Amino acid sequence: MNIIVFGATGKTGRDIVAGALNNGHQVTAFVRNPSKLSMTHPNLHVHTGEITNMEDIDRVTKAQHYDVAYSAIGSKGMFKREPILIQAMHNMVKTSEQNDVGKFIHISFAGVRSDAGKLGLLYKLIVPNVMRNLLHDHREKDAVIKQSSLNWVLVQPPILTVEPYSGKYVHEVHIQPDKSRKLKMSRANLADFMLKLANDSTYDRKEVFVTE
Ligand SMILES: NC(=O)c1ccc[n+]([C@@H]2O[C@H](COP(=O)([O-])OP(=O)(O)OC[C@H]3O[C@@H](n4cnc5c(N)ncnc54)[C@H](OP(=O)(O)O)[C@@H]3O)[C@@H](O)[C@H]2O)c1
Hints:
By secondary structure, the chain is α/β, with parallel strands linked by helices.
């Protein structure tokens, strides 16, 4: 497959890039700072550009046909709004539509879900209040994707960790109350799930909750 990763220098983005290369895919990493990627591979193509610059994104997206685009771009903080990332989402979605990207898979957040309260007090009371601005931005980005003509998947994990890959996680459209869940997820497991979605239509045009 031919894959493009936005946010390839991030912690999850790097795991997606590495996993896609291990699976034998051609991978284009769209980054603003190539030195942060710290990876080389014959099938890895690095494009430098600004996510807020439509011309930069359009150039890389129209250069070839991508079967899948991954969006792993995220805010550095939990408390302030980042309108620049909403604009970035508009740019990624528009250019993906115009250039017929096969599937658009984005990392959202479990906290935005209408059934997040089923995860307990943290997601019922604390997250909605403390992370109000972060949730606002996530909802706006999700809405841009949902209103698009793309074949999208919104992947909604809880808090992410840097634990190693275990392959032990669950995924579902509607949150099932189950106290055995850890309500955290390693980025390595998240990347594994996202890579599997490339060849799996189960969650096409759906929001999917995923957790360990
Ligand atoms: N952290 C959590 O617990 C958690 C929980 C649920 C969902 N999520 C979501 O999961 C995704 C990945 O999280 P992560 O912790 O792996 O991300 P991360 O390590 O913070 O990486 C964020 C990525 O976004 C890029 N980025 C941020 N602002 C940018 C800007 N203005 N212009 C261009 N690129 C920009 C960064 O580029 P640079 O490397 O150049 O800075 C980096 O590639 C995010 O969408 C996040 O919202 C996170």
